[in-house]
Amino acid sequence: MNSIPTEDRATGYREINLCDDIVPSTRTLGLIWDVKNDCFRFNIKLSDRAVNRRSILSFVNSVYDPLGFISPVVLEGKLILQSLCKAGTDWDDEVPDELKRRWVAWCSTLSSIESLRIDRCFKPPSFGKIVLVEYHHFSDSSSYAYGQCSYVRLVNERGNAHVSLVIGKARVAPLKRQVSIPRLELNAAVVSAQMSKFLRNELKFETVREYFWVDSMVVLGYIRNESKRFNVFVANRVQTIHDLTEPSSWHHISSAINPSDDASRGIDGQDLTDDCRWLKGPEFLWKAGPFVVATDHDYKPTERDALEVNAEMRKATAFQVKTDAEVSGLQSIDINRLESISECKRTVKAVANCLRYINILRKQPSTLSSELMIISDKIIIRSLQREVFSQEINALEEHGAENRSAGKKPTGGSLASLNPFLDTDGILRVGGRIGNSSQDFDVKHSIIMPRQSFLTRRLVRHFHEGVNHMGRYTTLNSVRQRGFWIVRGPSVVSEVIHNCVVCKKLRAKMQNQQMADLPPDRLKEEAPFTFSGCDVFGTYYIKERRSTMKRYCVVFTCMSSRAVHLEPLNTLTTDSFINALRRFICRRGVIKQLRCDCGTNFVGASNELERELKTMNQQRISEFLLSKNCDYFEFKFTIPHASHMSGYVERQIRTIKSALDPLLNNFGHMLCDESFRTFLCEVECIVNSRPLDVSSINDPSAPEPSTPNHILTLKSKIVLPPPGVFQKDDFYLRRRWRRVQYMANEFWNRWRKEYVQSLQRRQKWTRVVRNMKVGDVVLLSEENLPRNRWKLGRIDSVYPSDDGLVRKARIRVGRRDSDGKPTYLERPIHKLILLVESHSHFGGAMLLQ
Is the pLDDT of residue 849 over 80? Predict the structure, then answer.
């Protein structure tokens, strides 16, 4: 202040005497700075909040210590927080008693930190001129933490030394995976190297000597090694250390005098004083004069240290290729190495590149030419034949060159009918009977290919694609015309075509499964229409004055008695269907279940009725329905595109149309709306008069056939018949209600004996086949699209029936919706074509095709 002129000083404030008055402390970049004493200090305020994970995290993070002066003390708080995370304690859950005791004990030691004073300036007063500056970086780790500390050592012209802590770090070990102690030591060394770069950039000393200290000979072995190759974890960190420091500047220090041991194990707040080892540094740095490093050779690495270093060595793999000289002077190969290649051309090209590389190693010029491709082709074929037909080839070689040239073959063997021989290249060929033919040599004497080999199947697939996926005989003829004879060729070609995805897309049949058992509601002896199914059919035209109007028809069928009820529809909207449903319920009584497909009017009606039901007083409605011995009825939807699962309705529609269409074809153009409704009632009566069982129609002594009208015309107002035993004599009584109930019982008796038994047989889909599985690649049948435009998908989930057989599946198709999410469709398996099974390792490649 004395050096600043009076006119340049601030006015309007009380002048402070910096020498005599008490200067208040202030915060500088978040640190508390005692201006008068020019030192940093800490003011830690303990909160009175409940002890839980949230309050512990808040308090630990509130301790602002960017330079790490008190990081060994804060480490204990971080370890407690890490233990809470490891135990899965929620943010506001109560802390376990053991951790709570640790937390209270740690907080009780923090009050002593407020008396701590750390000089801001590295150079003490009256130190004199600085002639030498040194950085000393120490690193260490334990099983639960690792840390680092850096000191600046100043030497004046008199040789006196002064050491100050510049920066320190204390970090907890990771929780997600167990890291070995040598790796944690290496992490701490990386932090030291990074702090070295940070200090060189921030502290602008002109000439600085740097020393790095570790107490692990394993880490020194990593850093000082320049010839061995380590695993990725160690290699990346060693490379970082080499980029930032010199390996010669790293030295060993005993653990007893390593100050970074405080950062890896932590210390109490009471032990953190102005003259502690953490703030002052080790004693050997305070010795006068320039620092001289003692030799590290006094400490020799133990056998355990050598094992730790070798454990991080990258494993080297050496390949030994065994080759045999062939007749032609070329070499054979191990064909199993070619199994990962999917195409014939790429297989031959891969071998040709290997031969080209061999020529380059021999200092011979080589290019990928057609001649090299032909040689590669011969090497592959010869290697395959010598692996599969080794006995036949050995037998031919034993008879000498004169027998081979004459085409002679020892008797016996699996290839005896082909009269094989070896050509000049050592390739096994067909001798056969057409040697005098004028065809090419390769066609007359085809190369013999084994049946069980991936190379043979790959060859057949190549020619099958060449003939544009034609049939078995066309593909086999193409194979033989190119000079290849496959043992049992037709079966091999059939197998390849059977597994060809393109052929499946073009010609494969739909999937099927054994017909399921009838649902329980088809076999229950309930009042008619208690369990019903419905569907909409037709487009019929009527005359309304001078206009032609469209009309539709909705059919309700009883699941057990097979009775039908017809209602006209003016439109296909939800409102029109709800009105028809209400008319049906009012005339036929309450129902418990309504089965239908996923038509928009059916789904809309279900959603609207459910939405309106929620707005009403459900408790009162439930009490009323229970008092009437009835309940809510529910919609039950079949899976989309599964009309065969609604056969009980579709068959009735066919019967109805057979009665309705002749009338409408003759008089439909003259019908008005009233006449159309009348016609529907006539058709309903006709259909309900049909016999349920026709086996006894031609028998004159048989009783009258049972029809749905037998039960409909005698239907009472209650759901089930009243309790009682009704005899045949009741039919002649004057009490009409007993007569009605007797006839109803007779209907159900004959329904059990005659109609139910007719449902026993499965008309189709009689065998159990493979279930569709998650991951199968399928093609989705679309009736309105050509086959080449059907969607490709992968089964995401399946829906097994009660018998364990899968008849429905959920498929993920390739397209995505507007939000970028995948699209899923539900389909019956009868609308799916299986392309690739989930266990096939070619599934991904085939899907891309």
Answer: no
Whether the pLDDT of residue 38 is over 90: the answer is no
| Whole-number Cα distances in Å, 135 to 154, 240, 527, 614, 652 | 9, 19, 97, 77, 96
Q: Are 459 and 447 in contact (CB under 8 A)?
A: no
The residues with which 550 forms a beta bridge, in sequence order, are 541
Which amino acid, one-letter code, is at 357? Y
What one-character-per-residue DSSP string does 771-796 give? PP-TT-EEEE--TTS-GGGPEEEEEE
Q: Do β-strands 777-780 and 791-800 pair in parallel, antiparallel, or remain unpaired?
A: antiparallel
Mean pLDDT, residues 483-508 taken together: 88
- Looking only at Cα atoms, what is the longest distance across the chain? 139
Task: Look up the pTM and report it.
Answer: 0.46
Cβ neighbors of 656 (< 8 A, separation 6 or more) are 537, 553, 555, 564, 566, 683, 687
Q: Tokens for 566?
A: 């017809």
For the chain, what's the residue count? 849
Query: Could you give the C-alpha distances from 139 to 169, 190, 194, 412, 546, in angstroms and in order?
Result: 9, 9, 12, 79, 100
Q: Report CA-CA distances (Å) from 45 to 26, 58, 74, 108.
A: 17, 12, 14, 12
Distance, CA of 655 to CA of 227 (rounded, Å): 89
Instruction: Classify residue 767 by burial, with Cβ atoms within 10 Å: 0-12, 13-18, 19+.
Output: exposed
User: What Å distances lie between residue 162 and 118, 192, 737, CA to CA?
Assistant: 14, 21, 118
Cα–Cα dist 73/269, whole Å: 6
Single out the residue of 241, 158, 159, 249 nearest to residue 210, CA to CA: 249
**Vertex 782 angle, CA 777 and 787, to 5°:** 75
DSSP 282: -
Pairing of strands 130-141, 145-156: antiparallel
Residue range 690-737, pLDDT digits in tens: 777 666 555 555 666 777 877 777 643 333 344 445 454 444 444 444
Q: Residue 817: phi, psi to the nearest 5?
A: -80, -170
Helix (H, G, I), strand (E, B) or coil at 205: coil
